[in-house]
Structures are given as structure tokens and as C-alpha cells.
Amino acid sequence: MSSDVTKTVQKWHASFKKGTDFDSWGQLVEAIDEYQILARQLQKEVQASNSHDFTEEQKKTLGKFATCLEMRSAALQCTQSQEEFKLEDLKKLEPIIKNILTYNKDFPFDVQPVPLRKILAPGEEENLELEEELDAGTGAGLTPSFPSRVPGTLLPRLPSEPGMTLLTLAIEKIGLKDAGQCIDPYITVSVKDLNGIDLNPVQETPVATRKEDTYIHFSVDVEIQKHLEKLPKGAAIFFEFKHYKPKKRFTSTKCFAFMEMDEIKPGPIVIELYKKPTDFKRKKLNLLTKKPLYLHLNQTLHKD
After folding, report:
1. What percent of the chain is predicted at pLDDT more than 70?
2. Pairwise CA distance, residues 293 & 217, whole Å
3. 181, 205, 10, 16: which is closest to 92 by C-alpha?
4. Which residues contact 154 (CB under 8 A, 6 or more apart)?
5. Gap between the Cα atoms of 22 and 16, Å rounded
6. pTM of the predicted model, to two decimals?
7. pLDDT tens-digit profile of 53-74?
8. 61 in Cβ contact with 107 (< 8 Å)
9. Per residue in 198-220, pLDDT tens?
């Protein structure tokens, strides 16, 4: 065994530890990034036909490991993923990645290695969309089976308190150039402070009711779960637009939008859409498109 291989394995193990640490600290964006980077490195190794560093059996194990990393990232991205893959499940795999060269037990979970070319770097999805559109033309009567989506997790309005203001946000519709192709679209609404920490329970809308032209209509009310006076300076309300990708069998964030405290006032408002990944700290924002596409909301303030 060359010392390079040992180094590679040590690097993987360090990356795995880094991801699970982020995960256990609740730094989900960082955890997902780390998991996906590691999953891609394992994939590459599995797919390299000229690599004799690992046996076929070991490659199969690495492929399954990549699947588990994917499943954990999917669970973190979608608070209601049907197959919840927990952090403690993932942690059981640490001895495998650490000792891949000598590991000879059965893989603890019944998973398949990730199919080839499934794992994408953030930003790589855009090129795929094009291919998917080309594929869509040839999908002869395929009806993919979708996981049954939960009917949203919207919460009721808080009781009113004297002198305090509550906000109801009606999510009317979102404009997207490929609105018609989004499967099971829904929106995750969260309220974050400047460091991206949740100030409220995260809520998800039910799947959108109808699509027309370049719009997906939601027509649903979301009750913000804190009196406005109790939200810290610099807080923002985030809207992440998610849809299901049958090819990749997971729910993906397509874009996001946010509203800052000074934008809270009664009446309609349209807010701009930004490219994923969602940046809760609002540091690196890139508009989704140059076209005038927005999220349309209507705000109602309730004051006692």
C-alpha cells in the first residue's frame, strides 16, 4: 500500500469528522457542504477505472458511504424528508472510513452505492437542468413515483399581546422561467438573525396548488411566530423555494428570497430571487436571473 493511499484515507476521515462536527453544532450549511465534497471525492475514487488503490469490494463500500453522506445532506436540506437519516446513524460509519483498507464487515445500512454522476457541486445543477430538459423530451410515458409530500407545517397565529404586532405573510406566487416543470414545489419560511441562526420554528407551505405560464401559485398565509417587537435588529425572513427532482430522488432548493425588517409594512411586496445555496448571513448574494422574476407577497399587520 502506498503512503499516498493512507494519506487519502486520513484526509477523508478528517473531512468526515469536520462534517459531523458542523452537523452536531447545528451549522447545517457547512455540514452539507462538507458531506457533499466528501461524497464527490469518494465517487471519483469509485468511478476511476484506472485506480488500483482499492479493491472492488472497498469501492463498493465507498460508494455506499457516499450514499449515506447524500442521505444525511438531503435530510438536512429538507426538514421533512421521509427517510430521515440521522447524525447518529452517520457517526456509526466512522470506523469504516477510518479503516477502509482493513474493514471487512458488512455495511451497516442497506443502501445502494450512489448511481454514477449523481452528486453535484453547488452550481453544477444548472448544467444538469439543460440535460433534464433534453431528457424530458424522450421520457416515454415514465411516471416517476414521488414520495408523498407532507401537507406543510404551517403554524397558527400567536395569541395577540397588548401593544405588540403580529405579521401574516400571504405567499401569493413566485415567477420562474421553468415554472411548469417544477414538481411538488413548496416554500420553506424561516426567520434568522444576522448569523443565520433560527429565531422561530421553520415552517413549510403545502405543495403549490397551480402553475400557469411563468408563475407557481401558492395563495397561502404564513403566520410569523414572534411579535415583531421581539425580533432582533438585523433579523430577516427567508423564503426558500424547493422542488422535488425525480432524477436525483431528493428535494432541492432552487432559489431563495428574503425580507428585512425595514420591508415589513402592510400591503403587497415583491422581492428578488437569489441563486442557491441559501446564504442566511446575506453576504454573497447573486440574483437568480436578469429577468424580472420575483416572489409576490402580501403583508398584514395585526396590532392589539
Report:
1. 85
2. 14
3. 16
4. 203, 204, 205, 206, 220, 221, 222, 223
5. 10
6. 0.54
7. 888 889 989 989 998 998 888 8
8. yes
9. 898 889 898 887 888 889 999 99
Task: Single out the residue of 277, 255, 257 nearest to residue 35, CA to CA.
Answer: 277
User: pLDDT tens for residues 59-116?
Assistant: 989 989 998 998 888 888 765 545 578 899 999 999 999 999 998 888 888 887 766 5
C-beta of residue 120 within 8 angstroms of C-beta of residue 253: no
The closest of 236, 234, 241 to 275, measured between CA atoms, is 241
> CA angle, 201 as apex, 199 and 250 as ends, to 5°?
115
Burial 30-64 (b: 16+ CB within 10 A, else e): ebbbbbbbbbbbbbebbeeeeeeebeeebbebbbb
Tell me, what amino acid is at 251? T
Is the separation of the CB atoms in 168 and 290 below 8 Å? no
Closest CA to 54 of 92, 15, 125, 4: 4
Mean pLDDT score of the chain, rounded to an integer?
82
Roughly what angle, to the nearest 10 degrees, separates helices 56-77 and 3-24?
A: 20
